Amino acid sequence: MIIGILxxxxxxxxxxxVIEGYVSAAYRRGWRVIGFHDGFEGLLPVAGGRxxxxxxxxxTHQIRSFGGTILGTTSTGNFKIHINKLxxxxxxxxxxxxxxxxxxxxxxxALAVVGGSGSARTASLLADEGLPVxxxxxxxxxxxxxxxxxxxxxxxxxxTVTESIDRIRTTANSHQRMMVVEVMGDQSGWIALxxxxxxxxxxxxxxxxxxxxxxxxECIKARKATGQRxxxxxxxxxARLNGELITIRNKDKGEERLGxxxxxxxxxxxxxxxxxxxxxxxxxxxxGGSPCAFDRITALRFGVEAVKLxxxxxxxxxxxxxxxxxxxxxxxxxxxxxxxxxxxxxxxxTARDLGIIFGDRSPDRLMSERAMDTAxxxxxxxxxxxxxxxxA
Length: 392
Description:
The chain is α/β, with parallel strands linked by helices. The chain is 41% helix and 19% strand. It has two domains: 2-152 and 291-334, Rossmann fold (3-Layer(aba) Sandwich), CATH 3.40.50.450; 156-288 and 342-366, Phosphofructokinase domain (Rossmann fold), CATH 3.40.50.460. Helix 1 runs parallel beside helix 9 (293-311) and helix 5 packs across helix 6. The termini are far apart.
């Protein structure tokens, strides 16, 4: 067989590990692998050259530890999805014809697409056109597909954020400052939540839990009143400030993207609390660097399982991680809805019990809820004791 692989959208730690696993498993079966450069752009012909190469085990041996991707990637380009007024997606017919021509000319029998939600939607459209496509999910946001526990790249990003906040805390403590740390995540708060718990952040603000700025201010003042020297606030880029998404506009390119909430929030908190405040946007450090062990192993497994999926001719599927197992669901199901943090999940409840503030409750309400919880537990204990005495 001759099979292809490409990765599209934002990069993340672990993509090279997928490529290594994919190539290794394919060559053990005597197959040839074509790697396309710069995402779906690699399927389009260019004057005087080509955008693909044959990948061999010699080229991909031990690239599992490298960050980024040896194939390159892009979030912009000619190969785009169009959304009509009814919300239906389609691929430009000219682009589709060129991609099909490339696939036919190379004799590809299958194509693996490594990417996030946007790339998976494109893969789904190609599958609808009858092309033998499978999807391999990757995103540091951990928001792709409800059926998957984790996507590779997420744990590496959380590790990077955790190490960064640990460093930020020491300087915040030295100067008795409040530090606002803006992290990635788009519309999901997984990175903010996990890193906030791991670093004992005081406040974690995520898109899934709307917050009242006044509640945040009151909670911060309460912490400072106890003599705490530093305050750590972790905020996801997609959290809404007073109901508003904060974005950065590039007038030259006509682009608009999430970002800037850390800057604006830090100025508002300093004004409202009187505490000297700084902000830090971790940005693309979360995407870069070597993948952690968990992400390396998960990505390698995805690469190998993708080849097995092709071997069984199970096209139109995406790989998902369920506990210790790698399973599959249809690409259509994978992109149907994002995997978001549930406001009443066990992880959020754990964070609350650890003292993390989400800004949706005032300090008075928090104290009353804890008092009620304590009273309920005491009542339950007394009832059990009374039952035992009565039985005796």
